[in-house]
Design goal:
The protein is 36% helix and 15% strand. The protein has 318 residues and is of the alpha/beta class. The model has no long low-confidence stretch (mean pLDDT 95).
Length: 318
Amino acid sequence: MHAQKFEINRRAIPSDATESLWQAQDGWPIRRIDWQGLGEPRGSLLFLPGRGDHYEKYLETLAYFASLGWRVTSIDWRGQGASGRLLDDPHVGHIDDFSTWIADLRYFWGIWKAETPGPHVVLAHSMGGHLAMRALVEKAFDPDAVLLSAPMLGIQTGGLPLSLNHAFAKLMCIIGRAETPAWKVNEKPMSPMNVRGNILTGDKDRYEDELAWWILRPEVKLGPPSWHWIERAIASIRSLDEPGKLEAVKTPVLLMATIADQLVSTPRVIKDSKRLPHSETLIFGKEAAHELLRETDAVRDQCIERIQMFLDHYAPLK
């Protein structure tokens, strides 16, 4: 089955998917969606979304892999989607520390892996990709293969050193702006909403899927991150700089990115890929924006096909 021949209503939950709430170790509600599938399972796939995301945005991709026999699961990160917000202003993205998300993932993985057939693989986008890499480094989970879409291994800094951006974010927190939004519109400072779509994807219809879900389910919409989120994100990124950390990761990793990305640093993705003992890359040019799995068919199909090849090689049916 080719990705381009698979079609679903991207603005409705598929009838064969189940939505539910799961409780983190501290009792925090985490929203999840699962496809149990029919027949002999190919394996199990966990999808980890990006900052500000909710799993509805990726129904097309999740349902596709479910149609191939994968037992598919996705979660909304704590503080995002419908997993419960962390500030009085529900539209500001926030977290106390990225280690909280790692702890949630570690606990979820232990239960999910025990309940699902192998091989077990992880597909993650943007911030989810960063957290997946940290989880590998910290041995918070042990997937057979990991696939990363535009992973947030670095961020766009406007040409300034990351350390300078970090210092400014720390200053904003010190002067009492820790819980205030870092900018006034989503995704990129000083970008009006009418160009937000171009930053994320070249596919107008797929971009508008997200806006449609904001109307259907207003509770999933999230705005800019807080300054504390910015500071903690940069600290988490810099933590992976330590020599030996990525070099010790034995899991096969596929890293997909685009040089036209205006949110994450693709040069950093390429640099980090060379530190990983078992990695492959798929790098796009100006034909692709940040959300590779929500791009035009010409881009998205390449991603899907490369993912399938990678999984067939590194996570074959046991």
